[in-house]
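Risk register update: the risk that structure generation would not scale has been downgraded. Supporting records follow, first protein first.
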Amino acid sequence: MKKSLFTALIIILALAGWLQASPTAAHPAITYFTVDTLTDGPDSKLSDGECHSEVAQGCSLRAAIEQAAPISSGTNPVIISFSPDISGGIIYLDPTYGQINWTGNNVAVQGQTRNITVDGINLAEGKSVFSISGSENLLNYLTIRNAPQDGVQVGDFGENGHGDHNAITNNIILGNGFMGVYIHGGSSGGGGYNSIAGNLIGTSNLAATGCAAGEGNGLDGIYLDWNASHTVITGNRIGCNGRNGINIYAGYGAPTYTTIDSNLIGCNIDYALPNQGSGVLDQGGQYTLITDSAMSGNAQYGVWLYSAQHATIEHSRIGVNNYSTATLPNGFDGIYISDGATGNTIGGTPSTSDRNVISGNNTCGVRIHGSSNNTIDSNMIGLNADGTADMGNKFAGICMFNANGNHIGTPASGVTQYISGNDREGIYLSESNNNEIGQANQIGVGGGASTPLGNGLQGVMIVDSADNSVFPMVVAYNHGAGIAVVGDLSTNNAVVPGIVAKNDGLPIDLGNDGFTPNDPGDVDSGPNTLLNYPVVTSFSGTPVVVQGKACANCEIYLYQVAADPTAGGGGGIGIGFTVSDATGNWSFTLPVNPGQISLMAMDKQSPTIGNTSEMSPRLPTIYLPLARK
């Protein structure tokens, strides 16, 4: 319903532009041409206001578009339709005349139910079916196929600031040698505000269960370059193309403010229609918005943000079918953020309407490599849409390699991000520093934080990475340690989960090798310097005050024990923290009847990070004295 309404709106707005009256005229002077021949030929006499081709012995499509160019304008639109006598026919473009160069403005070519095909199979190399360099035109309900170059070119090819506000709607665009649709911005300010809506690009069948031979375009379904701005791509099905579904290429100037809304890219509702590259490849675009779309079933990535800046991906399905009820894996990662991509947001807060389902992919759900200052928040990663079933990615839910300063979940609780059910780790960091894993994350559980849907290995694995803040709200039911830190380069990692329990390994494991007892003087080295956990020296008073020793000027975190923290399955719930003095002494007033407690230390290296110890052995059950009447 959303797709059809959006597509209808595009067409209505476009027609409103063509039919808009001038300030001095009550009504526009509309010119109508009716194409009545399938033969291709040029207009015999331009500028006479009549569509006729002696070669074609009638009003050919080429002649109508040529005749429209000198007479069409905002107050004099031209509408080109097709005679019922040629319904179901094929217009083979004549190589003598080449591609159809559409230079007019406010021209509507209005097919019916895609039953007229314009075929470029006879054209010379490098030629497309349509090349639209005018503005405010409509190309609607045709089948366009077999050009050696592109099916439809739109944009500022004349470098004159035109080629904008065009609408390519409800067409079938198949089997072209290069792109299905090519949007070109140029350097003169044109090529903006074009829309591509309701088309089938690379497939002719809404209900296809796979790709049909000869239907995919040779390279990309849709390609944008050279400063193309404010392009709207909505309600399309884009599959079976030889490279990417959509390719946004900065080249000589970054495309900006591209909106990709309500598309199925690499799939239909339930079946994969794989593009042989990625569903969306954003190579240096700026402010791209991908919303309410499915990028699944593609041969490489669902979305690849390569050097992209300030993109947003929200409310989409990546690696699953359009209802998030079954997996449709992308060949590699669901989302790949690489090569300096920065400022991008996957999901967002505070509304669950921003949430993506990123599950079922053949490698990572989200991979960040060589990129910084990106945010991944409020998503379902490894689960179905309501968080009740495991549809895990084959590697980790989130993988980070040489990725610094990124944000996984918000630092405060709010809309929850679930990272669960993945075949390996929930989150994996390697050689990645200064990242934040915030309280919004629940790792290893389903919706409501009570359903066991653990990741196949650790909840969080940190390898040779430093200065990270790891503060997830819940880490539970994972089939390795809750949080493991390994490698001598892994230092100053602040690891303070709110709840960590019922993982197969330790709740927090420095070295991923089991419980590490304190050593005298705490002089050893290793992950997080193998920092000693705190010890208790006394209990006293009512309410009970616990006193003990730890590293000097350290934060001491206390947990109410759920099970032995020094053994697999152990851990607890955070109940508070205190700070030791310069000699390592600390005290804490316990809440009423905490039961057994465990302690963890962090030597503050900055206001937010420091080396964190493992959790201490549990202390005996503490019963507070009953108050006297």
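Supporting record for the second protein:
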Amino acid sequence: MKALFAYPGAPVAIGQCISAAISKLNAGDRWSITPWPEVDNWGKPLIAPILMRIAESDCVIADITRLNFNVTFELGYSIGAKKRVLPVINSGLKTDEEYFSSIGIYDSLGFKKYESSEQLAALLEREILTDPIAVPSFRDTEAPLFLLETPVRSDDLGRIISQINRSLLRYRSFSRSEEQRLPAVWAIDQVSKSFGVVVPLCSSEVQGAFEHNLKAAFVAGLALGMGRKTIVLQSLGGPAPADVRDELVTYRELSDIDDRISSICYQTHQLLHEVRPAHVPDTGVLSLLSIGDPLAENEFATLGNYYVRTDQFYRTRRGEVNLVTGRKGTGKTALFGQIRDDVARFNNLVVELKPEGYQLLKVKEEVLRDLEQGSVDHLITAFWEYLIYMEIASKALEVDSATHYKDQREFALYEGLRTAFERDKELSTSGDFSERLNILAAGMATRYAKILPEGGRSLNQAQVTEIVHSYEISSLRQALESYLVKKDEVWLLFDNLDKGWTPGGVTQTDILMLRCLLDAMRKIRNDLRRSVEEFNGVVFVRNDVYQLLLDESPDFGKDARANLDWRDRSTLRQVLAARLEDGLKQLGETPRDVFTLVCVPRIGLHESIDYMIDMSLMRPRNLIKLFNYARGVAVNRRHTIIEADDILEGVRILSDDVLADCTNELRDVFSHSKDFLYRFLNELGEFSREEVGVLALEHGISTDHLDTLIEHLLYYGVFGIRTSGEGIMFVYDLSYDMKRVKMLIEKYPGCSYVVHPVLRPSLRIRA
């Protein structure tokens, strides 16, 4: 059996141990293993001989003791080229396993450990199956590009996204602001369904660069192994790993990115015209079945085919709410997309505002850095008001650019609006909302810097008014009032506000920005409803942050909201069933019961679908991820339906994702709890209040903060409560009512706190 052995060049002990094992194995009749240093690349492109050796091999062995870009690239390439991969770790040396959980690739692939050349040889002398991980053949013609976003949403990433948007191609992406981990199963699925793949690298100075570049190595390897059009981007002076130098393109200026991205977009457009429908293999439908993406941003083109319209959707669509709240993964962005698409079908104007996180951080740095809070309320409200008016005007001018000249009166109103819009030459000539947001923040900071007394940190009311009046808000508003009479409805949808919050937790400034945004939208609604009967503004924000807003500003309880925290298991079943029905219909299958065609009916005493719902923390995103993970495991094991063991393995993969998500959510609202969940590693999984207190003290959390910590753990579903004579109750079993949760604790002071089952695999909870 022929194999390539990939391993890092350092430490030398790894290579020495592997060389000794290879010598022993090659002496027998079974193996012909080539270590990567012996591959002939003299006078050839650096990576070409390695890739040729992979193509000739029955399997590829990869040592991941020390994480390395080139080894990870070759691991991904081998999977993409449909070769069996055998990851191994030398546990006798210091390893990089601490990164496995945050990266997500290696621990979701599975690996074996050895300590000596004898143990390594013994591992490989066992019966080795050469069947590779299955690569789905489904290709996504609706969103043909896949983008691996950088961890910092910089100007470089903004330029890449802007250029993709200009190509009119939809894209799917991995965003660290949404998901920290990149499980191998998910990455394989995303790359396989793509026509083009865009992979930017990060320089070592960027926070999170090490983990990102390893994810980039794996994705680039998968893409090239599968034969996808691939571009690996880096700024001049970046890392330039050897294995991707042939595919690497560099840029000096931001404008250089345009040509690079335009090229792959053009190639993707060409490939779309050549796509051929895939055939269902004899092994069943699982390998081709697609139920959509856990991230709504990646499935906007198809989401309408299977979106389950709930009461929250209808209330929002009727204009009854101005806030949509919910925990991460409960469907806020999906609702955003469906409201947008439904409204846009009529004579309506829909303005989408989705700032990137780094842009909101710039707003805080530029506008708020030198001012006390009492000085900025009016200023920030005016900032949002002017920016929103500019966006409404920009959208109206864009939508009606081809029709306004057909009617004399409409032409005059259009020209009046354009004149008012173009008075601000800097903002009106900017390309899009992202650029206008940055320019306005910098411009407002410059204006108040001229007025602010030397060494001062506050502005009086007259000074704030002077800054506000330096913008043409009044004339722009009047032009809009005249123009929007011709529209039936105007909708303003604002998402991504929470992406601008710092990792250290939500601050008073974050709450201030949200409160001022709501003030500005309320003011705009009151002003514009004089001319357009239906003006609706909706902000989509995490529910825990909304609760902080209420604590800081009790008068904001008057805002009408739709809360997306799920409590009805039957509705979650509908969410999964609708996706399965659509996916099976695309394959020509129309079963009466979609679950029985693809999945075993039970796991022990539980219905399999109910078991998956229980493991999802009642969040649609987790449910979709769990099903996709279990499906991927079943396909790799050549199962025709998802079996019980496949679901359990899917839970193990999901467990690491949930641990990362819950860790980040806790950190965002309670900075003392950063990484606290890892204190539960190898514990029993059921705790008294005193036992939680001991772990908290070990983590540096004082007794004064213990009640707050436990409350957050209960709120996010990390803990459930076990009271005497009753089962375990999680927050969703109590309708997410924290008053009921607190009352239970008060009535049963001896209650215990139980770690949620989905977290038990990742925390290695003992029975």
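The domain at 2-125 is CATH 3.40.50.450 (Rossmann fold). On this basis the risk owner (M.S.) recommends closing the item.
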